[in-house]
Amino acid sequence: MDLLVYLLPVIVLVISCGFESRDKFRYYGKFVLYGVWSSIVAVLMLPWILVDSPGHVKHARHASIFLRLYTQLLGIKWELRGVEEIHKAEACVVVVNHQSILDILGLFNIWTTLGNLAAVAKNALLWVIPFGPIAWLAGTVFIDRKNGKASMETLITVVNKSQGQATKLLIFPEGTRNKDILSNGIQTFKKGAFKIAIDNRLPILPLVFSPYYFIDEKTCFFGHGRVIISALEPIPTENLTPTDVEELMTKTHSIMQKEFESLTKEVLSTVPQDYPANVQWRQEHFKNMNS
After folding, report:
1. Rounded CA separation 221/285 (Å)
2. Are the CB atoms for 220 and 244 separated by under 8 Å?
3. Rounded CA gap, 190 and 237, in Å?
4. Which of 110, 115, 59 is nearest to 89 (CA)?
């Protein structure tokens, strides 16, 4: 079993090389293998999870050590900034901008730094076999977005249980993936994360991902690249009341949007001149949008 864990990255690398000749196969192949790798790691960890505290978030932290190995095969470099800000808040609500399924891979690369982390995901993912059920056993919280009241009750239960364990609650406040973030910026936030934070006097920890400039769905391009993950100063909520939810949400969005724009300019300034034309167009488009 242990030998298989070490051999699988090699197998995935060999298969990935087969997609190099055609961008379309390479693009879809990398995403498919990402799902396969995640499922294999989940299945291999299942016996351990079932024996040792099923449902505890520590299992997700341990799994991240193996799941982040796939990063090396994709050629993505993740750079974490603001580690000191993460350490300021043990129990908190972590809010992250959402661009791609790869956001989770980026989080796997910093999960051990974040510590005990309970991710919030939509109910539909619970039925993605085998990953969904095993993610649930590893502490992921699944909610029904169509039923706001039930979702809030679930989150409140999780928060009450986790506060004594210094657990961070991870939420994507945009609700859905933002595929055109370079043009439109970070989408409007939903209130759930901020209501939870105020009601339980938990600080908000903003986490901002720079754009995946090296991926283009329309042209099926998936190259190598760099992603900066910036942890910003926690926003306190001790003196806030439910009437302050809107203001807290707007403040957090503004701070994260400003950081995203700064990170975007930084990473795009390093894009090689011979990079694909579609990326160059997006770089120019972003400059024009902010001129």
Report:
1. 18
2. no
3. 17
4. 115
Residue 59 contacts residue 49 (beta carbons within 8 Å): yes
Structure tokens at 252: 């957090």
CB atoms within 10 A of CB 41: 22
Beta bridge partners of 143: 122
The tokens for 132 are: 């969904």
- List of residues 6+ apart from 87 with CB closer than 8 A: none
Comparing CA positions, the residue from 207, 202, 206, 233 lying closest to residue 85 is: 233
* Per-residue pLDDT tens digits of the chain, which is 291 residues long: 344 444 455 555 555 454 444 678 888 888 888 888 888 898 899 998 888 888 888 888 888 988 888 888 888 999 999 999 999 888 899 999 999 989 999 999 999 999 888 888 888 888 888 878 888 888 888 877 666 666 666 666 666 665 556 689 999 999 888 877 877 889 999 998 999 999 889 999 999 999 998 888 888 888 888 999 999 999 999 999 999 999 999 999 999 999 999 999 999 888 877 677 666 666 666 665 555
- The encoded tokens of residue 235 equal 């926003």
